[in-house]
Write a structure and sequence with these properties.
It holds the Pfam family GET4. Belongs to the GET4 family. One of its GO terms (biological process) is protein insertion into ER membrane. It comes from Candida orthopsilosis (strain 90-125). InterPro entries: GET4, TPR-like_helical_dom_sf. The chain has 312 residues and is an all-alpha fold. It folds into three domains: 80 residues, no CATH class; 84 residues, no CATH class; 128 residues, Serine Threonine Protein Phosphatase 5, Tetratricopeptide repeat, CATH 1.25.40. The protein has 15 helices and two strands. A two-stranded antiparallel sheet has the order 1-2. Strand 1 and strand 2 form a beta hairpin. Helix 2 runs antiparallel to helix 3. The longest helix is centred in the C-terminal third of the chain and has 21 residues. The chain is elongated.
C-alpha cells in the first residue's frame, strides 16, 4: 500500500474511532470515486477492501456491504474476472465476515454471481464457490432458533438454489439441514426431503452429487430398514424407497434403463402424486430417457425457473 493510501486509511480509522461512521463511509466513497475516474483501479480496490474490513470489525455492516458492492462494480469496470484468484478471495473474505442473517446478502449474491457470469465456464449459473458461500451462510441463518417458520422457509428456499449450484462441499451443508428436518418429523416419510437434492442435482445431470447426497442422508437418519441388495427398504416410507430406486436407474445407460424408469414411475405414481413429485419425475424421464410420460414438459416446483428465482 502506498503512503498516500495508508494515510487515507489512517484518517478513515480515526473517524471510525470517534464514532463518525457515516462521515467516514461517505469520505471513503468520495476518495474512491476519484481513483476510479482516474482509472487507478488497484488503489480504488485496496481502499474499499481496507475500509470494508474496518467497518465490519466495527459492526457497521450496512456501510460495509455498500463498499463491497462498489468493489464488485470496480471489478466489472476494470475487467477483472472471477478467475482472478486474488479478487475472488478478497470478495469471499469480506462476505464471509458479514453476519449470516445480514439483510444485504441477497443483493450481494445477485451482484457477485452476475459479475462471475462474465467469465468463461461460469456463464450459465455463475461461480460455484460464490454459490457455496451464499448457500452456506443463508442456511446457517435458517438454522437459527430465533426466527419464525415463514422466515426459515424463505431462507432455506434461497439457500437451496445456491447450494444446488455450489461445490462438492455444498452437499453435506444441504443434506445436514434436511436430515435435521427429518429427525424433527420422525413419523413423516423422509423420502420427500431426500427427493429435493436428488432431483435438483439430477436436473443438472450431476450424478456424483446425487450419489453423495443419498449416501450422507441414509447414513444420518436413524430409521429401521431392511437391506435388499444395495437398497435400504423402509416399510412405511415408500418415497424413501422410491428415491433410492430412482438413483439406481439414473446411474445406468439410457438404452437399458428407460423401461425400468417407466415401470418405477408407474408403480409409485400414486405415491408421487400424493407427494407432489409427479411433474419433476416426469421431467427427469424426458431428460434422461426421452420418455413422454405425463406432462413431462413441466419441471415441477423444485428446480423450475432456477435462475429467475435466484435473480429476481
Amino acid at each position: 500500500m502506498s503512503d498516500k493510501l495508508s494515510k487515507t486509511i489512517q484518517r478513515f480509522q480515526s473517524k471510525i474511532d470517534s464514532g463518525s461512521f457515516y462521515e467516514a463511509h461517505q469520505t471513503l466513497r468520495t476518495i474512491t470515486n476519484r481513483y476510479v475516474k482516474a482509472k487507478q483501479y488497484p488503489e480504488a480496490r485496496d481502499l474499499l477492501y481496507q475500509g470494508a474490513n474496518i467497518l465490519i470489525r466495527n459492526k457497521e455492516y450496512a456501510s460495509a456491504s455498500d463498499l463491497i458492492i462498489y468493489l464488485i462494480q470496480i471489478y466489472e469496470e476494470e475487467g477483472l474476472k472471477v478467475t482472478d484468484k486474488d479478487a475472488k478471495l478478497k470478495l469471499i473474505e469480506l462476505i464471509s465476515n458479514l453476519p449470516n442473517n445480514d439483510p444485504s446478502l441477497n443483493d450481494l449474491a445477485k451482484t457477485s454471481v452476475t459479475w462471475s457470469q462474465k467469465s468463461e465456464g461460469c456463464k450459465n449459473f455463475g461461480d460455484n464457490e460464490l454459490h457455496h458461500l451464499f448457500g452456506s451462510k443463508l442456511i446457517q441463518a435458517a438454522e437459527e432458533e430465533n426466527i419464525d417458520h415463514d422466515q426459515k422457509v424463505k431462507l432455506f428456499a434461497i439457500a437451496e438454489l445456491h447450494l444446488v449450484l455450489g461445490t462438492f462441499e455444498s452437499v453435506p451443508v444441504y443434506v445436514n439441514f434436511l436430515v435435521e428436518t427429518a429427525k424433527a418429523n420422525p413419523d413423516a416419510d423422509s423420502g420427500a426431503l431426500l427427493a429435493r437434492p436428488v432431483l435438483n442435482y439430477a436436473y443438472l445431470k450431476n450424478i456424483k452429487f446425487v450419489q453423495e447426497t443419498q449416501s450422507l442422508f441414509l447414513k444420518s437418519i436413524n430409521t429401521e430398514s431392511e437391506a435388499i441388495g444395495d437398497i435400504k427398504y423402509f416399510e412405511n416410507k415408500p418415497l424413501l424407497n422410491f428415491v433410492q430406486l430412482l438413483v439406481e436407474v439414473l446411474q445406468k445407460d439410457p438404452p437399458t434403463n428407460s423401461q425400468k424408469y417407466r415401470k418405477l414411475y408407474d408403480h409409485y405414481k400414486p405415491v408421487l402424486r400424493d407427494g407432489e413429485l409427479l411433474a419433476p419425475v416426469e421431467y427427469l424421464g424426458k431428460l434422461y430417457f426421452n420418455l413422454n410420460i405425463g406432462n413431462s414438459n413441466n419441471q415441477g416446483g423444485l428446480m423450475a425457473n432456477l435462475m429467475s428465482g435466484l435473480f429476481k
